[in-house]
Every structure is written in C-alpha cells, then in structure tokens.
Amino acid sequence: MESRSVINTADIVKNQYSSSSNLNTRISIHDKYSTNKMGFSNWIYSNYEIPEGARILELGCGTGSMWIGKDEVVRKCGKLILSDFSEGMIETAKEKLSSYDKIEYQVIDIQDIPYEDDSFDIVIANMMLYHVPDLKKGLSEVRRVLKEGGAFYCATFGEHGIMEYLSGILIEYGVEDNTNKNFTLQNGDQYLKSAFGKVERFDYKDSLAVTNIEDIIDYIYSLSSMTTLSSMNREKIRDALTEKMTDGVLSLPKDYGMFICR
Q1: What is the share, in percent, of the chain residues with pLDDT greater than 90?
Q2: How is residue 195 annotated by DSSP?
Q3: N or C: which end of the chain has fewer CB within 10 A?
C-alpha cells in the first residue's frame, strides 16, 4: 500500500509539471497583482550568498526563470547544474537560458542525487520539497552532496495564504483547503533540523490585489491536482469572489518565505 501511494504522488507531480503552462499561470498572477513589487523570486535570489567559483546544484528548477539576466553570477560559478523531476521543465529551462553555455541540465530525483559526497557549495530547492514522497531521504541526500560549511536554500509557502483564504470564502459550497502541507513555513524547520545544524526562517511580506476575477479563477483551475476548488462551477466561483471585492479589488493574503540551512 505504501509503495502505491509513493507512485501515485510521483504521477501527480509529473502530471502537474509535465509542461510549464500551469506553472506559468501561477507565476503570472503573482507578477500582475503582487503588492510587493520586489517579486518573490528576486527576494529569494537576494538571500543567496554565492562565492567565486561556487559549485551549485538547483533541484526543482522549474522554468529556470530565476537565472535570467544573472550573467555575472553565472560566469563566476565554478559549476551550475539546474535539475528538475520533469523533463518538460528541463526543456523549457534550456530554451529560456539558451544564451548560457555554462549551465548544465539534468533530470534528477532529490531522493537519489547522482553525485558524490561533498560535491556542492550550494544546493537550492525552492517550492518543491512538499512534493517529495520521502522527505527525510531527500534531505539526507541534500546533506550528503553538500560540502561542509555549504548552504542549502529552500523556499516554500505557509499555511495561511491564498488557498486558505479562497477556501474560507467558498466553504458554504463544501470546499476544503486541500493544499499539500507536507513542507510549509510552519512545519519545515522540524524536518530540516534533522539534517542540518543551523536552520533559519525568513518571511516574505506580500499580498495580492486582484482586479480581474477571471485571472484568479484561472489560477484556481491551474491547481487542479492540489485543491477541490477546481471542482466548482466557474460561475459560482466568479460570483462568490466578486462579492468580496472592494472598490474593484479582491485582496488576498500571501504566506511565503524560505529557510537557509548550514
């Protein structure tokens, strides 16, 4: 029974991220409506400390968009490997970052990282640890390939953000918040402390100010494998959300941040 559960989880993740379309839908709503104009990706990147000649492995790189325009940093890296569980994401990252011939790309499962012990100065795993079937094993693998004194950066969401808010609005329709909470800002440190001696949490202050309800509905449907919100009729969602608008704006809380481990 346990192995079947692991397989199903892996299949869900592969389906959810088989192409970049759903991910792009989710990224676009943050780009359009976030009140913190710094941007979550820029904030994450601002927390990185990348020394000259650093060997870096990113797990779950997605579309690779975080590295666009980072010419100086890419040049000074001793090695930069972008990896993802999805072949589709790797292909998209290759296209987006085609101007960088120094970047290497691989399909990698965090639970079985194909590198020797102490291979990297920095390991990155943003917005993906909640998908890992055996998180303890995955973090053990990260710790194994990380050099002594190296840093592990992992961003994630919290439990009091967009989905909790939307589910609350639609509770009368029997909607529940089924967001994957396997690794959040609230519980992530307990997993990380089993593998790392120092774990620090940093919160990103932000919210959404949505003016076009259709965009947030598209966002909801892009999360079809993670929430029962997508089972609702589109018109009912539209009516319920429109009622919550003030002066043409729907305000939604965001709960995001990251952990830095050493």
Answers
A1: 76
A2: T
A3: N
Buried b (16+ CB within 10 A) or exposed e, 33-62: bbeeeeebbebbbeebebeeebbbbbbbbb
Phi then psi dihedrals of residue 249, to 5 deg:
-130, 130
Query: CA-to-CA distance for 129 and 60, rounded, in angstroms?
Result: 9
Beta-strand relationship, 55-58 and 120-124: parallel
How many residues are given for the chain?
A: 262
Cβ–Cβ < 8 Å for 207, 251: yes
The token duo for 12 is 């869900």
Q: What percent of the chain has pLDDT over 70?
A: 88
2-27+38-160+180-206+255-261: CATH superfamily? Vaccinia Virus protein VP39 (3.40.50.150)
Q: Domains of the chain: which residue ranges?
A: 2-27+38-160+180-206+255-261
| Token pair belonging to 232 | 């609702």
Considering all CA atoms of the chain, what is the largest pairwise distance in Å, rounded to the nearest integer?
A: 57
